[in-house]
Design the sequence.
């Protein structure tokens, strides 16, 4: 009686152990892949939201673009330099730049997203303090630089010294996480088009960011959007600009290779 | 935080009596045997002690009597079950129900109470690739937000209430 009970317990333990192991071993090893038929995030939005985005006169994000244009030539720091001092006309010099980010900084070996690149210019070339993430100024300048690539194809480098960052981003995207134990891929690769309450799950493309989210009633960075998905699965909400999110950003940018940028988008 | 228990209402003006009651409680805890104390409290099965038999968990997770009405409220509550984010339930007043998981209407006809219990506790034991979150498991989870770490999505009685409600959905 005692003996058979123990055998049953051991058997049950082994069975549960095997099941739990396979449940968690599967996901992180999933290879990098792009959606077979790539789609912009906008097509998953309601017609009203799409219309708001399509009209620059109505798109609320254009307010930030306008502010960014002003900041572009606003002097700062002890030498009174502005972005324009080094980069002249942003509508020319910034064409296509956002489409290549995140990008490795050859000097530091760090992977930089556009926000950290802008702040690096502030600190190193202007000797002005960095903007905090989600500040109106950083959002405005990021939006201004990004709109110069509107309609241009995404092209990021993921090989050579960037390969380790790409792999880190891939692993993050594939790993089940949080109390709800879900990986990004389970929604944005496996359940595209399904309803998550009032949302339709898109491919998780990043082409529209920074963008205006109606739920926030303001402009937000891509990292703010990523934090919302982390919160949704009750996973650690990483700090803005954290290396994990920047690496994830690189993986996501690779997934949308050759698709045209559409920032500033409007999202539900 | 209010540390007063329901029975103590009205004792505020008489602090000495409150202290006496606390003292009595401590003494009672010391002298009463652990078994007797356990008998008073409902027995709850910890997530690590769940016994799965086939595709089901036959034993309830707690000795407390479940309540289907409470279960319904838990499943609809966005801060609790939030099941409608993925599923549909026969609740006409709830717009925007999810389509990621199966429609749960009639689930009580398709599955037994014990089978429903396992699907709530940890569906990954049946389907390793499932999207269905493990609602009563704390092991083998990564990057859990500090607020939820080492906690289950639902408590034992919340699982039982939810199971009771789902089992009652016959059509």
Sequence:
């Amino acid at each position: 009686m005692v003996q058979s009970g123990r055998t049953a317990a051991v058997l049950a333990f082994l069975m549960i152990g095997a099941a739990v192991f396979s449940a968690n071993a599967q996901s992180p090893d999933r290879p990098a892949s792009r959606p077979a038929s790539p789609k912009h995030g906008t097509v998953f939005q309601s017609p009203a939201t799409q219309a708001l985005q399509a009209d620059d006169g109505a798109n609320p994000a254009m307010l930030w673009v306008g502010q960014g244009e002003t900041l572009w030539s606003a002097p700062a720091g002890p030498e009174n330099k502005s972005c324009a001092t080094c980069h002249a006309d942003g509508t020319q010099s910034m064409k296509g730049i956002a489409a290549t980010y995140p990008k490795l900084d050859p000097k530091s070996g760090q992977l930089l997203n556009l926000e950290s690149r802008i702040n690096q210019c502030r600190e190193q070339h202007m000797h002005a303090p960095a903007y905090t993430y989600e500040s109106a100024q950083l959002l405005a300048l990021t939006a201004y630089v990004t709109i110069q690539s509107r309609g241009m194809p995404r092209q990021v480098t993921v090989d050579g010294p960037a390969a380790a960052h790409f792999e880190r981003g891939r692993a993050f995207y594939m790993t089940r996480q949080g109390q709800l134990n879900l990986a990004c891929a389970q929604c944005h690769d496996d359940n595209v088009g399904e309803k998550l309450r009032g949302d339709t799950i898109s491919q998780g493309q990043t082409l529209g960011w920074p963008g205006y989210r109606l739920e926030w009633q303001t402009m937000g960075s891509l990292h703010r959007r990523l934090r919302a998905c982390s919160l949704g699965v009750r996973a650690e909400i990483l700090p803005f600009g954290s290396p994990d999110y920047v690496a994830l950003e690189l993986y996501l940018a690779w997934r949308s290779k050759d698709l045209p940028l559409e920032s500033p988008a409007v999202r539900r | 935080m209010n540390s007063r228990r329901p029975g103590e209402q009205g004792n505020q003006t008489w602090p000495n009596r409150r202290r006496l009651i606390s003292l009595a409680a401590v003494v009672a805890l010391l002298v009463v045997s652990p078994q007797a104390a356990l008998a008073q409290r409902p027995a709850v099965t910890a997530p690590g002690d769940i016994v799965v038999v086939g595709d089901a968990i036959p034993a309830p997770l707690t000795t407390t009597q479940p309540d289907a009405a409470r279960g319904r409220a838990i499943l609809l509550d966005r801060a609790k079950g939030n099941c409608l984010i993925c599923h549909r339930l026969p609740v006409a007043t709830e717009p925007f129900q999810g389509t990621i998981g199966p429609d749960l209407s009639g689930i009580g006809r398709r599955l037994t109470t014990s089978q429903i219990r396992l699907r709530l506790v940890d569906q990954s034991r049946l389907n390793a690739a499932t999207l269905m979150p493990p609602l009563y498991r704390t092991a083998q989870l990564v990057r859990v937000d500090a607020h939820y770490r080492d906690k289950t999505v639902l408590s034992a009685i919340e699982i039982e209430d939810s199971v009771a409600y789902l089992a009652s959905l016959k059509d």
About this structure: Chain B touches chain A through 30 residues (CB under 8 Å). Residues 1-15 of chain B have pLDDT under 50 and may be disordered.
